[in-house]
């Protein structure tokens, strides 16, 4: 029931949040674009301190992301149009098509996201259920820090 409630919240309004860092030499436009949809603290007393963050991820035709990362929250993805391949824990990717939804457990290693379609972009509504103080995105191999 709670899942249905926050899905309804996400679809209530559709109005750029970058969830990933993509840097490729010679590429001027990021093949993964994110548009914020809604961020809302939940009001159920049992969910105090949780918020729903949602965004639409657009993946360019043929684009692949292999930047391993984790989300310190539960993540649902609903394919609005196209097809997306999702790989978790370096396992074989699973394909999801328009109208299908996937789920990523909190802190599972997300090792692949790809649009196998070469002729059109894929759009996915991402729904993050995040507890206050947790990170929505953490790279698996953070950049080394420099000492001063």
UniProtKB/TrEMBL annotation:
Keywords: Signal. It holds the Pfam family Cupin_2. Residues 1-18 form the signal peptide. It comes from the Bacteria. Coiled coil: none annotated. Transmembrane segments: none annotated. Residues 56-126 form the Cupin type-2 domain. InterPro entries: Cupin_2, RmlC-like_jellyroll, RmlC_Cupin_sf. PANTHER family: CUPIN DOMAIN PROTEIN (AFU_ORTHOLOGUE AFUA_3G13620) (PTHR38599). This is Cupin type-2 domain-containing protein.
């Amino acid at each position: 029931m709670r899942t249905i409630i926050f899905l309804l919240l996400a679809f209530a309004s559709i109005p750029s949040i970058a969830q990933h860092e993509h840097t490729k030499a010679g590429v001027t436009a990021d093949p993964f674009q994110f548009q914020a949809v809604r961020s809302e603290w939940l009001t159920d007393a049992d969910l105090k301190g949780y918020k729903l963050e949602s965004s639409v991820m657009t993946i360019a035709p043929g684009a692949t992301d292999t930047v391993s990362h984790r989300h310190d929250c539960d993540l649902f993805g609903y394919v609005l149009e196209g097809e997306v391949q999702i790989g978790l824990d370096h396992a074989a990717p699973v394909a999801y098509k328009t109208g299908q939804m996937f789920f990523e457990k909190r802190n599972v290693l997300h090792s692949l996201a790809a649009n196998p379609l070469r002729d059109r972009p894929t759009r996915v509504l991402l729904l993050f259920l995040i507890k206050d103080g947790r990170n929505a995105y953490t790279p698996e191999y953070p950049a080394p820090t420099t000492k001063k």
